[in-house]
Amino acid sequence: MAPDYSQLMEDLRTGKRESFSVDPENFMAFHDAYMAYEYRKRIIGMADLDGHVVYHFDKDDKATN
Questions:
Q1: If you average pLDDT over every residue of the chain, what do you get?
Q2: Average pLDDT over residues 24-29
Q3: pLDDT-based confidence at 27, cuts 50/70/90?
Q4: Which of 52, 50, 31 is nearest to 9 (CA)?
Q5: How confident is the model at residue 61 (pLDDT cuts 50, 70, 90)?
Q6: CA–CA gap between residue 11 and residue 24 (Å, rounded)
Q7: Contact 43/52 with Cβ under 8 angstroms?
Q8: Angle made by CA atoms 21, 34, 63, in degrees to the nearest 5
Q9: β-pairing, 20-22 with 43-47?
Q10: Neighbours of 1 (CB within 10 A)
Q11: Which of 5, 14, 24, 63 could bridge across to 33 with cysteines, CB 3.0–4.6 Å?
């Protein structure tokens, strides 16, 4: 079963997490949650080895509420 990617992205936004990783077999579950997430343009992914992608929240001086 895939993790709750909506919650993981919210945890990035609120600072509870620094990053999380998505495995290739869970990418479509992540993609569905990502497309529905209000702040998705601030979620940045960096490709890792073997198709894994590590995501973090792009922080700047803008409010994130």
A1: 91
A2: 96
A3: very high
A4: 31
A5: low
A6: 21
A7: no
A8: 95
A9: unpaired
A10: 5
A11: 5
> Locate tokens 């209000």: which residue?
38
Q: Work out the burial of residue 63: count CB atoms within 10 Å of its CB; fewer than 13 is exposed, 13-18 middle, 19 or more buried.
A: exposed
Residue 3 per-residue DSSP state: -
Amino acid occupying residue 7: Q
Paired with 53 in beta bridges are: 22, 47
As a whole number of angstroms, the distance between CA 36 and CA 38 comes to 6
pLDDT in the model for residue 62: 58
Q: What is the DSSP string of 4-58?
A: -HHHHHHHHHHTS-S-EEE-GGGHHHHHHHHHH-TTGGGEEEEE-GGG-EEEEE-
